[in-house]
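Recall that a protein's primary structure is simply its ordered list of amino acids. Everything else, from secondary elements to tertiary packing, is in principle encoded there. The following example makes that idea concrete.
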Amino acid sequence: MTITVYSKPACVQCTATTRALEARGLDFAIVDLTEDADAMEMVQGLGYRQAPVVVAGEDHWAGFRPDMIGRLS
């Protein structure tokens, strides 16, 4: 399963999310929404207006969600 974290600079919830993924030994990619207009459009198309947005296989969510991250490990 591919995990992608759509993030932005100086985002506390983004940092918490990536640290939680790392703590569980999960591989993920980070996409900076401020530098990738296509990614921003995709995230907004999913209905999200805040970072981070995590896309993990068929699942996706916004914000720091330890409960959802726990389901991935």
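Strands lie at 3-7, 29-32, 53-56, 59-62. The first helix runs from residue 12 to 23.
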